[in-house]
Description:
10 strands; flat; calcium ion binding; membrane; CCDC47; transmembrane helix; DUF1682-domain-containing protein
Amino acid sequence: MLEGYFAGVQERVLSRSWNMEGIVLALVLVTVGLYLGGSYANKSKFESWIREQSKNLESQFFQVGVSKKELFFSDDEQHYVSYASGRVNVAQFIMKFTLESRQNFTVWLMEHVFHFFFESIEALNDEVEITATLHDDIKVDPFICAIVNKDDMDKKRKDNYFLSLTKTSDSDKLPVEYVYMSESAEINDALWTPELKELLEQNVDLIQYIAFTDQSSVHPFSLDETKPKFKAYLKLKLKSDKSSLARTSEIINRFLELIDFIASKKFKIRSEVSKKIAKVREAEVKKLQKLIDQDKKEQLEEQKLEEMKKQREKLKNNPKELEKLEKKQREKQQRKMMKKQRVRG
């Protein structure tokens, strides 16, 4: 009985065409293989970078890693975060990594194809953005000064609020691939050294920008967010070959030296320059206050409209009272219009 059953099953299995199932299985295996391969490529590249740089950072910071046991954590196959702390002048040193979407081969391929044919599509790069925050007891006069690679310069300005407050200028003191985005030429000169120019010349393929600012990278939405808090930013392309890793270590060391110089008493901004910068800050605060007031006004109008709707809903079965309410609203609107006309006159 059982022998006959199994013989029937075997006959049906052997007689059936499994072409479609084979194709589906092959596609699943290829998709899984590409996902695992892309994920491995990203993690391998990132780990090569962070292992090498952690050796360098250990000579600069008391602790390197998000905890004593963990060097980094990842949100997904594309995004990683690492951290260092415990250094003179620098309270926090946060490294945020963004890698290409290699784990999703279809998306990765489409992004490359679109970028090749359309310049408006941003270039894909493996990048790390480093944010260094000074200790609270270190006082630095408010200013913004950045050295920015000309590649995707407009996007960098758009992505960073503090850069929108600056003026762009070329300089003989910088390689042709870079521009200053700053509030004062005097500050540019104060931070410039021949060694800095040489560093930029040797690392055009790595350095995206070096920035020092008392303002946020994100547009403020409250007056509290406009308060000065000094930070330094370094954005680099992430490369894991031996030469690039060595150059990256040197860039990070020079970046920390610049922070030390700014935190020292040697770095000073003339009072005339500080006054001009203060005026820019005041103008931005006024703009923001105007937006906040406008938002509050709109919210009040919405509340009034909501109350009116509720009143009408209550009086919909009482035509006389509803008519009185509407008359009052019309009279109120007329008085408002007359008041506006008098002001204009």
